[in-house]
Design brief:
By secondary structure, this protein is α/β, with parallel strands linked by helices. It starts with a strand and ends with a strand. About 20% of the residues lie in helices and about 20% in strands. It has a domain of about 130 residues: Pectate Lyase C-like (3 Solenoid).
Length: about 220
């Protein structure tokens, strides 16, 4: 038997067209037409991709100019570093300033000054008028003592070398009991108590290290 597939297309009718006697006709449904895809719009390329890379050709004059700029920057940086090295840290006296400081008395723990304690130097200071301060230089060290500047000791200038290494400290607190069995109270705990007028202190640290045991003062000033 001969199979003839029907594709959906019509055969022209012709008298001369005859099918074999044992032929079978197989009919297939017509295939749907494929929808045409819309044309894709080409994406524009990035301008940098389209732009050819230009090779930089540096002229001798340009190279000399760049070298001159580099040398100038290096010279300026070296000058700034040298200047930074010559400037002392904040609050610290330079060697020149230390030499130029006119000190009427010097306090040093190692005995290189006239006094070993700040309190001794304060008690030995005379009363001065405004504009004529009595200058006491305090060399580096940890001075564990209480200092009282009496009203008769006016216009004293207390100058340390460096607040990081020159420290006046004590540890009284308000809950401590005095010789009479009474609590000291807050205002009697100051490490430095100033009653004298015109007192100045610079380049040193004043501290109270009593800790969390009660209220405590590092500095109390009653003078003008």
């Amino acid at each position: 038997m001969t199979a003839i597939k029907e594709t959906g297309a019509r055969l022209p009718a012709s008298p001369d067209t005859t099918l074999p006697q044992n032929a079978a006709v197989v009919l297939q449904p017509p295939q749907p037409e494929q929808q045409a895809k819309p044309p894709q719009t080409p994406q524009p390329s990035h301008p940098d991709r389209l732009r050819p890379k230009a090779e930089m050709i540096e002229s001798p004059g340009h190279a000399r100019s760049r070298a001159h700029v580099a040398r100038a920057r290096f010279t300026r940086l070296a000058s700034l570093l040298a200047l930074a090295a010559s400037v002392p840290a904040a609050g610290q006296l330079s060697e020149k300033q230390t030499c130029e400081l006119r000190a009427d008395a010097v306090v040093a723990l190692d005995g290189s000054g006239q006094f070993r304690s700040i309190e001794e130097a304060i008690y030995a200071a005379p009363y001065r008028e405004p504009g004529h301060e009595w200058v006491i230089r305090v060399k580096p060290g940890i001075y564990r003592e209480r200092v009282y500047v009496q009203r008769e000791r006016g216009y004293i200038r207390l100058v340390g070398d460096d607040p990081a290494t020159t420290v006046l400290v004590f540890g009284l607190h308000a809950n401590r009991v005095d010789a009479d069995g009474q609590r000291l109270g807050t205002f009697r705990t100051a490490t430095l108590h100033v009653d004298g007028d015109g007192f100045q202190a610079e380049n040193l640290t004043i501290a109270n290290d009593a800790g969390p045991v009660g209220q405590a003062l590092a500095l109390r000033v009653d003078g003008d």
